[in-house]
Amino acid sequence: MASFHDYLERYKIKLSHLRIEQIDAFLAKFNVGFSQDTKRTYRSYLRGFLSYLYQDRRIIKTDLAPLVVGAPVFAKAKPPNFLRPHEVEKLFASLRLSSANDIRTYAMVHLAYFLGLRPAEISKISLDDISFSKAELSLRDRKSNNPMTLPVPEHTIKAIAAYMIGARPDSKHRALFLSFHPPHGPLSPGVIGHYITACMRQVGLCSTAYWLRHTYAQNLLEAGASIYEIKEMMGHDSIESTR
After folding, report:
1. 121 with 42, same domain?
2. Quick check: is 215 in a domain?
3. How far apart are the first and last CA of the chain?
4. Orientation angle between helical segments 189-201 and 85-94, nearest 10 degrees
């Protein structure tokens, strides 16, 4: 707070005329060299002081406390992992269609790789979302609350059809992917992620289901898609997530 006082004095800023731009400028200088945790602590102190000025003393006319925020801090400091072309070939060469479970996993891997779908999105696909005549898939419930219709490659349509004809249990449920155990309810995102990850681990790929989604994004990037187009295809809330 002493440093903030000195800053106000130096630039002759009156508390009653304080603006968020001036607070941001102070924090940009003051927080240089501190860790993220320390920066977060100092922002918290400053928010408390601003709340006091607004709520208790009525010195400032606008509550500036909620505006004191830091830059987005993401859980992953490194770019997401993705599969290289030879690893993709290795994975698809290993997929089998010898059992109902194999056929179901085959279809799920196709959706994760060729459409970049999250396990949660795969779990929510219903029979009503698939148009075989148009080769399209409607995603009505995405994480970003941004429903869209995606074109589905021919081999992915065939993978879905093979599962529906040769492996999907009879059930009253409309979900595409069902458990093989009675009462044959919809698979959870965790179970779908488990099956996709398991088939990747079987061929020595130390990866998870999300690697296929990241590989889909990498393929779009290498094909010349813009960051904004990739954002829409991935169903991201923020362009920063896509970056």
Report:
1. no
2. yes
3. 35
4. 100
Residues 44 and 159 in one domain: no
Q: How far apart are CA 4 and CA 29, in angstroms?
A: 11
Could you tell me the CATH number of the domain that includes residue 180? 1.10.443.10
For residues 198-208, b (16+ Cβ closer than 10 Å) or e, as one string? ebbeeeebebb
200: containing domain? 85-242
Number of domains in the chain: 2
DSSP 200-227: HHTTT----HHHHHHHHHHHHHHTT--H
- Within a domain: 24: yes
Per-10-residue mean pLDDT for the chain, 243 residues long? 91 91 88 82 89 89 84 58 91 94 97 94 95 93 76 96 96 94 92 93 89 91 87 82 79
Same domain, 115 and 147: yes
pTM summary value: 0.66
Q: CA-CA distance, 210 to 193, in Å (whole number)?
A: 8
Distance CA 88, CA 222 (A): 15
Alpha-carbon gap, residue 47 to 53, rounded angstroms: 10
- Cα gap 158→220, rounded to integer Å: 22
